[in-house]
């Protein structure tokens, strides 16, 4: 098939431009939201009352999910095309070496070390964690989203719920793609519709059972918020379209007007800051269009392919997992001084200090902990496949 002139296929090894920069944008949205949450929690002036500040944290995580669905799906499809099957065991090993070292390090710190840290004790953290044995077990078996629903958040660890969702996606997704074969697009569409239908059934049943929905239904309803597999599946759709060279659909999705409408819709919805029916799925769909264009359009309407953005995007996992600690240290050590600054300057200085300390922690994590394990990752079956970060 002749190469279309409006999109580019990834190079060999697989590299999609702009996506590292987009990872940093996603992490930054989460960090800004959590800074203001923590200021409010500690009784300091906060911007949490602003709707856009309330929304950007959730949608930053949704952006991470759609990105993961896109990248993982494309790489697995490419492996399957080149070798006739997906080496599921090797995929699991690569994901474990990427995710587990920092995840378990943060779990141990949050459960055993940080509650006793003198620098943080004045902020209300104590050695007491509700249901510690159960919490530790659930986090150990990669079910932090279940732990959060059952027992509530743990300081410095509540952000790990999304790691549980990602790990649950990784557990099943290579098998879905292996089984789907040439019918991958309708199968993925069917999986999305199945997840969406199950969600709607639980939501309707929960509201119908008010005021006493029962513990099982209440758990299922609350767990839905922390189980966004449908957002990861949405990210898989543009990966399939690009991989299969669905030129007619790609031409429409990559039209400048569609790119602008998608970007303006995201910005408008964030500025509005309200939840609405299927809002996560709507955001995921808009993000999927933007990701496709950033990754593969010959002339996307924006570019994030800058050296410093790519570098910070490479650190995004550490930024996400360690930012709570950085924010707490900034508020504890400099919070009273920051409170004396005028509103916009207080916000800017808090953000810069928290982000700067988060970057330093993420760099230490990447070079001291993560990279040694990354260097042990088994290469995919071909040198033309590059594992997703």
TrEMBL record:
Record keywords, A-Z: Acyltransferase, Membrane, Transferase, Transmembrane, Transmembrane helix
Segments traversing the membrane: 21-41, 61-78, 99-120, 140-163, 184-207, 219-243, 250-272, 278-296, 317-335, 347-369
Keyword Transmembrane helix: yes
Name of the protein this chain belongs to: Acyltransferase
Lineage, highest ranks first: Bacteria, Pseudomonadati, Bacteroidota, Cytophagia, Cytophagales
GO molecular-function terms, A-Z: acyltransferase activity
Domain Acyltransferase: 18-362
Keyword NAD among UniProt keywords: no
């Amino acid at each position: 098939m002749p190469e279309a002139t409006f999109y580019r296929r990834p190079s060999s090894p697989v590299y999609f431009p702009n996506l590292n920069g987009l990872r940093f944008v996603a992490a930054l949205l989460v960090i800004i939201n959590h800074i203001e949450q923590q200021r409010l929690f500690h009784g300091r002036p906060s911007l949490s009352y602003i709707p856009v500040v309330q929304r950007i944290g959730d949608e930053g995580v949704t952006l991470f999910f759609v990105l993961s669905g896109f990248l993982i799906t494309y790489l697995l499809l490419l492996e399957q095309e080149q070798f006739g099957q997906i080496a599921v065991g090797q995929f699991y090993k690569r994901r474990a070496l990427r995710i587990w070292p920092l995840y378990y390090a943060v779990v141990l710190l949050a459960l055993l070390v940080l509650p006793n840290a003198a620098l943080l004790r004045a902020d209300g953290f104590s050695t007491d964690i509700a249901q510690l044995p159960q919490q530790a077990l659930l986090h150990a078996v990669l079910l932090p989203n279940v732990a959060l629903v059952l027992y509530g958040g743990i300081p410095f660890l509540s952000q790990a719920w999304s790691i549980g969702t990602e790990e649950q996606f990784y557990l099943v997704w290579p098998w879905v793609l292996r089984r789907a074969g040439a019918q991958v697009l309708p199968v993925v569409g069917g999986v999305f519709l199945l997840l969406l239908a199950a969600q709607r059934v639980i939501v309707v049943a929960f509201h119908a059972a008010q005021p006493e929905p029962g513990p099982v239904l209440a758990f299922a309803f609350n767990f839905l918020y922390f189980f966004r597999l449908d957002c990861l599946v949405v990210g898989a759709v543009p990966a399939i379209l690009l991989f299969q060279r669905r030129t007619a659909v790609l031409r429409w999705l990559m039209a400048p007007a569609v790119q602008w409408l998608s970007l303006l819709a995201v910005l408008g919805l964030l500025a509005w800051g309200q939840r609405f029916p299927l809002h996560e799925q709507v955001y995921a769909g808009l993000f999927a269009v933007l990701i496709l264009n950033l990754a593969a359009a010959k002339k996307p309407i924006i570019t994030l392919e800058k050296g410093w953005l790519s570098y910070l995007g490479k650190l995004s996992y550490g930024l996400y997992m360690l930012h709570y600690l950085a924010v707490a240290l900034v508020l504890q050590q400099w919070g009273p001084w920051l409170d004396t600054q005028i509103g916009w300057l207080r916000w800017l200085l808090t953000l810069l200090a928290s982000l700067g300390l988060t970057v330093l922690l993420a760099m230490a994590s990447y070079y001291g902990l993560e990279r040694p394990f990354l260097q042990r990752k088994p290469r995919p079956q071909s040198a033309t496949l590059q594992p997703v970060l």
